[in-house]
Amino acid sequence: MLFQANRHANKSANNWRLFFQALTLSTFAALFSTHALSQEIKLVSAGAGVTELVLALDAADELVAVDSTSYLPEHLASIAKLGYHRMLSAEGIMALSPTLVVGSEVMGPETTLNVLKQAKIEVVKLPSSADEKQLMTNIDTLAQLLKRTDQAIQLKQDLHQRLEGLHKQQQQLSQQQAQPKILFMLLQEGRGARVGGKGTAADTIIALSGAKNIADFEGYKSLSQEGILSLQPDVILLSTRSEQSDAQTDEQTAQALLKEMPLLAHTPAGKNGYIQTLAPQALLGGLGISAIGAAETLAATLLKQNQ
Q: Which residues contact 179 (CB under 8 A, 6 or more apart)?
């Protein structure tokens, strides 16, 4: 009887030990799962349009670095700046110990991205947005990665409303007898000005505004003052390849351009002072927040011009 009692006691003790072991293991598993879910995101954003979306999703606190094309407000000036998004350094990125690298479809080179992947860093490329559908898809993808799905809902609503507003302005401009003629010029230090034709980012912005890109060729082409004068643009848009936003006002930029190319003073744009600047980031990554803003500014100018 005593032997049976001891055996029963031992069995009961073993059962309790197994129970506590299972409880301990399940507790550790739950804690590990919670830690994994709440793991800190350390993001490198490589591309002006991508960084704009990160900021718009209220995810600036996840950023550890951005590429040189990205614009950051002054209060985020402490965030590291990497090189050009097409020529990233694996060593420079890995030194920051990121968990995630997100960039445009031209982010590279591939050798750098492969090194990052081998180091178990998640690398994601977002396609260039040619239309609203792709832009919204990119926002959803980024929001999932950054756990900002609620912010994505509001951002998509806001951008959709802005695009709808542009569509209405397009209809207003289309009712005019002559569609406004726009010329885009890219200014680069050490080179002559180049005019942006079809298929360029500037062409997308001009079309969004409801105007006509007067340059009917593909891509970029150098034109003389005489060539630009013959086109008689109603509005001239200017941008640079600078990585920093130009601190000059539109008026100062117009004066500088007319001083350098005095014949342009005889165009409708020059006579009426309709010479505007485009932020460099509006020309990168396809349809994005800056491109929409640039189109809104241009559309407002055109409607004012025709009042």
A: 173, 210, 211, 212
**CA end-to-end distance (rounded Å), the chain:** 108
Chunk the chain into consecutive blocks of 10 residues (it has 307) and report each block's average pLDDT, rounded to whole numbers. Answer: 48 52 46 50 96 98 96 95 96 97 96 97 95 97 97 98 94 78 87 88 93 94 93 92 57 84 94 90 91 93 78
- Spell out the residues 6+ positions from residue 5 whose beta carbon is closer than 8 angstroms to its own: none
Burial class (CB in 10 A: 0-12, 13-18, 19+), 4: exposed
Task: Report the predicted TM-score, pTM, of the whole model to 2 decimal places.
Answer: 0.83
Residue 56: count of CB within 10 angstroms of its CB:
20
Nearest CA-CA partner of 98 in 150, 176, 46, 48: 46
Spatial separation of the C-alpha atoms in residues 306 and 222, rounded to whole Å = 30
Would you call 297 helix, strand, or coil by DSSP? helix
Measured CA to CA, the distance from residue 207 to residue 277 in angstroms comes to 17
Nearest to 114 by CA among 84, 95, 94: 94
Q: Identity (one letter) of the amino acid at 56?
A: A
The two beta strands, 100-104 and 181-187, are: unpaired
The span from the CA of 192 to the CA of 206, in Å, is: 22
- Residue 20 CA, chain-centre distance (Å), reads 52
